Amino acid sequence: MTSATAAPPVLRLAGVSHTYSGQRRRTAVLKDIDYAFERGTFYTILGPSGSGKTTLLSLASGLDTPTKGTITFEGQDLTELGLGRYRNQHAATIFQQYNLLTYLTALQNVTCAMEITGTKPTTGSRKARALHLLEKIGLDKAMATRNVLQLSGGQQQRVAIARALACDVDILFADEPTGNLDEDTAAGIIGTFRELAHEQDKCVVVVSHSQQLAAQSDRVLTLRKGKLTEQVNAR
Ligand SMILES: Nc1ncnc2c1ncn2[C@@H]1O[C@H](COP(=O)(O)OP(=O)(O)OP(=O)(O)O)[C@@H](O)[C@H]1O
Ligand SMILES: [Mg+2]
Asked: Which protein residue has the closest C-alpha to ligand 1 atom 30?
């Protein structure tokens, strides 16, 4: 008999299907997906363009609800927990299109997210923590205090990453987070994801086309024809 005391996985998808309904046609994107994501693990999800990776992240991050099936956080249904509460306290997302607040500076984008989620740094102010995170990711104070529209695409992507890292959540989702970054910056960010999973016991789920990123993650999942399959990285 299996142990009754084993903790539920941090995130579980059970029988998850998702279909987009247009005026004339329906697109079945995800088909009956079952998967359990664990803490302390860094996952990469690969798959061709249009295979449903962003759709899967939007369901797992509580932005949308599946047309069929259930998603649970530590055993509790997301709809029961409240999607807003889940997004606020337990899951942070780095979006494919960044979704920064364009009327704010880089620094304000990060501190604003900390205020909304009620994240208080263990030492120092929110501003100091935000500046530290931005600096760590390669944006100095002069850049941090510029309006985000005055930053390059790669710099905006780094603001989106710093914003997600600033909120102390259990699960971090990222959609193509290294797409616009040079190799060195990308390597630094992959290192940060590994550290979050392995040293802070977070669950990190990254969608990417990058084999470099997949090679450094613990588990590689592939989404194809609506199905999710797994290979474990041999090391
Ligand atoms: N809001 C929507 N309404 C209708 N169809 C949609 C919607 N969003 C996505 N789709 C369709 O669902 C499918 C999966 O899209 P999705 O954005 O999840 O793919 P993806 O794997 O993230 O692709 P990419 O690698 O290009 O980012 C595509 O066929 C897309 O056209
Ligand atoms: Mg996508």
From this structure: 50
pTM above 0.85, yes or no: yes
Which ligand does the CA of 55 lie closest to? 1
Biggest CA-to-CA distance, the chain = 60
Asked if 12 and 35 touch (Cβ cutoff 8 Å), the reply is yes
The string of DSSP codes covering 169-201 is: -SEEEEESTTTTS-HHHHHHHHHHHHHHHHHH-
pLDDT, residue 233, reads 57
Region at 189 (left for phi over 0; alpha for psi -120 to 50; beta for the rest): alpha
Angstrom CA distances, 28 to 52, 62, 68, 106, 215, stand at 9, 19, 11, 38, 30
Q: Confirm or reject: Cβ of 50 under 6 Å from ligand 1.
A: yes
183 or 52, which is more confident: 52
Nearest to 100 by CA among 135, 136, 134, 125: 134
Question: Hey, what CATH class is 38-62+80-232 in?
Answer: alpha beta
How crowded is the C-beta side of 59, counted as CA atoms within 13 Å? 25
DSSP 8: P
pLDDT 10s digits, 99-149? 999 999 999 999 999 999 999 998 999 999 999 999 999 999 999 999 999
Residue of the CA atom closest to atom 9 of ligand 1: 55
Summarize the confidence of residues 22-41 as an average pLDDT.
Answer: 94
Judged by DSSP in three states, 60 sits in helix
